[in-house]
């Protein structure tokens, strides 16, 4: 039996016309990598101990930043599922990254904005990055001057992207 995949002269691979899908599936090596969606309590404890986080100060800080994510998401009119996904991404990030590396307010704000942006893509509630940046600015500075989407947002966008 001949190979179901034929190498053409221009370097592209074509499936032979007389091959059945079963034969093609047997011969193709598919590499799959799946992210682990859930962790056991022991795995979470091990990750927290490894990163050196988990004290009450870290927990309080993360709760405050999750509140910030909630406020920005509510300001944008995002559904709760999108906001919850952003909070999950934020907390999951710190399972693998030490909190001391992201201690500044600027870094935390950028991380929260990034988590919100990614969660809008995951949950298919598309928002432009500039809209998220403007909403985050309004939440952080409720009494501050109004900004438009093109002024300082361009500088913030560079940090997130």
UniProtKB/TrEMBL annotation:
Lineage: Eukaryota, Fungi, Fungi incertae sedis, Mucoromycota, Glomeromycotina
Annotated protein name in UniProt: Cyclin-like protein
Protein family: Belongs to the cyclin family.
Keyword Aminoacyl-tRNA synthetase appears in the UniProt entry: no
One example GO MF annotation: cyclin-dependent protein serine/threonine kinase regulator activity
Keywords: Cyclin
Domain Cyclin-like stretches: 67-155
Record-level GO BP terms: regulation of transcription by RNA polymerase II
Species: Glomus cerebriforme
């Amino acid at each position: 039996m001949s190979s179901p995949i034929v190498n053409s002269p221009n370097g592209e691979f074509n499936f032979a016309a007389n091959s059945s899908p079963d034969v093609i599936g047997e011969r193709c090596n598919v590499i799959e990598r799946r992210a682990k969606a859930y962790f056991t309590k022991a795995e979470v404890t091990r990750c927290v101990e490894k990163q050196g986080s988990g004290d009450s100060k870290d927990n309080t800080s993360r709760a405050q930043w999750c509140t910030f994510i909630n406020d920005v998401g509510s300001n944008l009119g995002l559904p709760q599922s999108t906001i919850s996904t952003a909070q999950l991404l934020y907390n999951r990030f710190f399972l693998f990254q030490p909190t001391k590396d992201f201690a500044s307010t600027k870094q935390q704000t950028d991380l929260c904005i990034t988590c919100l942006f990614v969660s809008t893509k995951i949950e298919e509630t598309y928002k432009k990055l500039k809209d998220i940046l403007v909403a985050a600015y309004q939440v952080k500075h409720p009494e501050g001057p109004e900004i438009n989407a093109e002024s300082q947002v361009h500088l913030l966008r560079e940090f997130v992207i």
